[in-house]
Every structure is written in structure tokens, then in C-alpha cells.
Amino acid sequence: MENKYQDQVYNFKGLWDLPSICGLKIVKKPAKTIVIATDLYDQNPGTSITEWNTKLAMELCNNFKLNPKEIIFIEHTPHKDTKLEFNRETFFQVNFTLDNDKFINPDWNQLTKEEVDNLISE
């Protein structure tokens, strides 16, 4: 199945150096870069992106040479085929405070799918 919010699977070391994975899409725009990290809960043997977002976002900046002051970091949870509300697709923009070479104080703001699509296509 095609997923327009994921271009690759990204491997990272999570909590206690556990091997962990997420889906990753990076969209570079003038003066901003949209980073969408997708939670692959069924395939991820390690740490979730929500637990590791400050470290993951900085790792992505370092590995992909992204300007930490210009990233828009979005946590994406894909839809699971159940009727349970917590298994529906969600998007959260995570805003961080940049402290030297670290992201701290994550703050989540829910976005609609349309808002994410607009960010990507602007």
C-alpha cells in the first residue's frame, strides 16, 4: 500500500539503545523543512517516536544536514483497521525549544490531514 507520508523506513537507536524504526518523509522547502515521522507500531521492536522525538528530531537534523531552526516535525500515526478511536490516523506537529545542540520541551499540536497536505504542497 502506498503511503504518501512515508518515503523510507528509518532505523534509530531508542531508549537503552534498543533498535527502533519509524517511517520517514522529509520535504525541503525554502526556509523550512517538513519532517514526518510515522509510528510503525506493528513493526517497531523498540522505542516509539513520541517517547524519543527530541532525540530523533536532532538525529535527523544531523544525519540529513537539516537546519534545526527550520524543521517542522510531525508525528504521524497511521490508521489501523479497527473501530477504536485511538487507532485512527493522527498528525501532531511537535514544537521544540532549541537549547544549544539539543531539542527540549516538546509541545504537541494536533493537525488535520488537510493541514499536513497543505504544508507539503505549499
Question: Structural class from helices and strands?
Answer: alpha+beta
How would you write the strand order of the largest sheet?
1-2-3-4-5-6
Distance between the termini: 25 Å
How much of the sequence lies in strands comes to 35-45%
What's the helix-strand series? EEEHEEEH
- How many domains? 1
How would you sum up the major sheet? 6 strands, mixed
Would you tell me the overall average pLDDT?
90
Q: State the total count of DSSP E strands.
A: 6
Instruction: List the uncertain runs.
Output: none
Structure overview:
By secondary structure, this protein is α+β, with helices and mostly antiparallel strands. It has one domain (8-121). 20% of the residues lie in helices and 43% in strands. It contains 2 helices and 6 strands; from the N terminus they run E-E-E-H-E-E-E-H. It has helices at 49-63, 113-121, and strands at residues 8-13, 19-29, 32-39, 71-77, 90-99, 102-111. It has a 6-stranded mixed beta sheet with strand order 1-2-3-4-5-6. It starts with 7 loop residues before the first strand and ends with a helix. 22% of the residues are buried.
